[in-house]
C-alpha cells in the first residue's frame, strides 16, 4: 500500500451503492474481494455482519459508508468498533432519511467535547 491511498467501502441499498460505483469507488483487492455490498431484501444479517467485519479488517479501506437503516441492523457490531480507521460514516438512503439521534459514532464524538471546547 506504499504510495497508494485508502479505499472507501460501501454497504447500502442498490441506489446508494450504484451511485458510489458510478462515482468510481468500486475496487477488487488482490483476493478479488469487492469493497462494496448491495443489501437487498434477501441479504442475510450474517452476510451483512461478515462483510462489515471484513471491511474493518482490510488494510486498504480507510472509510466505510453504510446506510443508516442497515447500520441499525448491525448496531451491536458498529458499537464495538472503536478504532479511528477505518472511519465508519452512516449515510441516508432515498427511502430512509438520516437521523442524527441514531448515529452511535456521532454520539460518541459528541461525548468527546464540551461546550467550552467549541468556543
From TrEMBL:
The record's Gene Ontology biological-process terms are:
synaptic vesicle lumen acidification
- Entry GO CC: presynapse; proton-transporting V-type ATPase, V1 domain; vacuolar proton-transporting V-type ATPase complex
Q: Is this entry keyworded Ion transport?
A: yes
Q: Which GO terms describe its molecular function?
A: proton-transporting ATPase activity, rotational mechanism
Tell me which UniProt keywords the record has, alphabetically.
Hydrogen ion transport, Ion transport, Transport
Which SUPFAM superfamilies does the UniProt record give?
AtpF-like (SSF159468)
**Where in this chain does the entry annotate a coiled-coil region?**
none
Q: Which Pfam families match?
A: ATP-synt_F
According to its UniProt entry, what is the function of this protein? Answer: Subunit of the V1 complex of vacuolar(H+)-ATPase (V-ATPase), a multisubunit enzyme composed of a peripheral complex (V1) that hydrolyzes ATP and a membrane integral complex (V0) that translocates protons. V-ATPase is responsible for acidifying and maintaining the pH of intracellular compartments and in some cell types, is targeted to the plasma membrane, where it is responsible for acidifying the extracellular environment.
Spell out the PANTHER family in the cross-references.
V-TYPE PROTON ATPASE SUBUNIT F, VACUOLAR ATP SYNTHASE SUBUNIT F
Give the family, as the similarity comment puts it. Belongs to the V-ATPase F subunit family.
* Subunit and partners: V-ATPase is a heteromultimeric enzyme made up of two complexes: the ATP-hydrolytic V1 complex and the proton translocation V0 complex.
**Per its record, how is this protein called by name?**
V-type proton ATPase subunit F
Q: Which organism is it from?
A: Gopherus evgoodei
Q: What does UniProt list as this organism's lineage?
A: Eukaryota, Metazoa, Chordata, Craniata, Vertebrata
Amino acid at each position: 500500500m506504499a504510495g497508494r491511498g485508502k479505499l472507501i467501502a460501501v454497504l447500502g441499498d442498490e441506489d446508494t451503492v450504484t451511485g458510489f460505483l458510478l462515482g468510481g469507488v468500486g475496487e477488487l483487492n488482490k483476493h478479488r474481494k469487492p469493497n462494496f455490498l448491495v443489501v437487498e431484501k434477501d441479504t442475510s444479517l450474517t452476510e451483512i455482519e461478515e462483510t462489515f467485519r471484513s471491511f474493518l479488517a482490510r488494510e486498504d479501506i480507510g472509510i466505510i459508508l453504510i446506510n443508516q437503516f442497515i447500520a441499525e441492523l448491525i448496531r451491536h457490531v458498529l458499537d464495538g468498533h472503536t478504532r479511528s480507521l477505518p472511519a465508519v460514516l452512516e449515510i441516508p438512503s432515498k427511502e430512509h432519511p438520516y437521523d442524527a439521534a441514531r448515529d452511535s459514532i456521532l454520539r460518541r464524538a459528541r461525548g468527546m467535547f464540551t461546550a467550552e471546547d467549541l468556543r
